[in-house]
Structures are given as C-alpha cells and as structure tokens.
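Protocol step 4 of 5: obtain the predicted structure for the target chain.
Materials: sequence only (see below). No template structures provided, no constraints applied. The aim of this step is simply to have a reference model before the mutagenesis design in step 5. Sequence pasted as it appears in the construct record:
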Amino acid sequence: MRIYTKTGDKGKTSLYDNTRVDKDSIRVDCYGTIDELNCSLGFAKNFIDNNEIVQEVNKIQRMLFNVAGELATIDSSKFPQSIKEEDVQDLEKLIDNFIARSNNTPQFILPGSSKASGALHMARTICRRAERRIITLSKEESVSPILMKYVNRLSDAIYAMARFLEDEVVLVEFDKKS
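Step 4 output (structure tokens):
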C-alpha cells in the first residue's frame, strides 16, 4: 500500500469532505495543530505513571480525531462525529477533579517540576495555539462554537492534570519595581 498520492505536490490538499484547499490555509493549520497536540499528548504519556491520567489522555486523544475531523470539513453535515456540549462537560468534570486534588494556589506556577508535568505543559501550550488558530478561522469561516469551547476547556484540563502531577509547586513572583 502506498501512502503517497502525489495529489498534494502542487500545494493543495483534500479536506474530509473532498474540498480541495491550499495546504497553508488557516483551516489546514487548525487541524494540523490539533494533530500536533495529539502527538504531544501521546509523547507525554511516556512520562506519566498515573494510570488515571493516562486513561484520560487516551480519551482526549480519541476526541481530538473528532476535533480535527470537524475542522477538516467545511460542510458540517458530512462529519457526524462533531463535538457536543456533553464533551465540554466531561472536560469540566476532569478539571474540577484534578484541581480539587492539587495544591490549589491561585498564583502562577513555574511549569514542569517533573517530566510528566513538563510534557503536559508543552501539550497545553500547543492546545492554546490551536485555540488561537481556530479563533482566526472562525473570523473567516463557520466554526462550531461548541468546538471552540471544547478546545478552550481542553487546555484547562491539560493544565489541571499537569498541575496534579507537579512534584513540587514553584510559585512565580513578579518583580514589582517601579
């Protein structure tokens, strides 16, 4: 089986609904960044010893295929696995669970006191970039507001898991020079 089709050799690619677009379109950048996020979460799992978090990351990775698929489809009726409000609510429960079990200080922390938390913090920043790209796309094309909410909550969920896995919490003090 060949994985190359040669159809993208001139800078175009096909979306899920077979629409041809430029490979550097905002839409392709959005689902490409979601793919990057999915890969970074897969990498992070290599450092996580907590089985509960590994299972949550696995669920999130599966959901990211739906996020990417929805972003890769202009005609939303052609992609039935769209993100739903229940998916957002599941992330909110995950966030509440791990934040309640963490040292819940309201200050900024220095991320990455362990390999596991550091890898998750890297994934969180990729998620934030994906969110920014999706917002840019939404200014030009239709994007589900539920998908946008999901990606916003997802970065919070990754933060909550990373925070839970911090070996130690190092607070960031801001220099208040006048």
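Step 4 remarks: The two ends are 65 Å apart (CA to CA). Residues 12-165 form a domain with the Hypothetical Protein Ta1238; Chain: A; fold (CATH 1.20.1200.10).
Proceed to step 5.
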